[in-house]
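Hi all, posting the design record for the shared folder.

TITLE: backbone redesign
STEP: 1 of 1
STRUCTURE INPUT:
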């Protein structure tokens, strides 16, 4: 006789909701990446071509768990999101510069 699966707790439900919201934001970001202009890519064709060449495959693989339901074996695909970590460097550097200059002792 199979062991019954316990009912998820309120905390587990909340975490699942937060995870779904993050995943939905990521899907919207994937769509918006087809329209982001950069210095080198100003036309829609150039933007799409550039995105499809590299980042699209990582972004596509990172949303695979959305289509796998509750399959925990697919969650490792979310690690492909770390490809975009470099984008956090500049805002983090600016934030730390502001905070450190505000709270450091003036000489």
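Okay, here is what came back for every position:
SEQUENCE:
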């Amino acid at each position: 006789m199979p062991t019954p699966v316990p009912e998820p707790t309120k905390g587990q439900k909340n975490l699942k909701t937060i995870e779904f919201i993050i995943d939905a934001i990521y899907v919207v970001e994937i769509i918006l990446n087809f329209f982001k202009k950069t210095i080198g890519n100003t036309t829609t064709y150039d933007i799409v071509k550039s995105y499809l060449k590299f980042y699209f495959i990582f972004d596509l693989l990172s949303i695979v768990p959305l289509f796998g339901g509750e399959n925990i074996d697919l969650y490792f695909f979310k690690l492909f999101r770390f490809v975009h970590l470099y984008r956090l460097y500049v805002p983090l550097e600016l934030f730390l510069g502001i905070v450190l200059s505000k709270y450091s002792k003036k000489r």
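COMMENT: Residues 10-103 form one domain.
Let me know if anyone wants the other runs.
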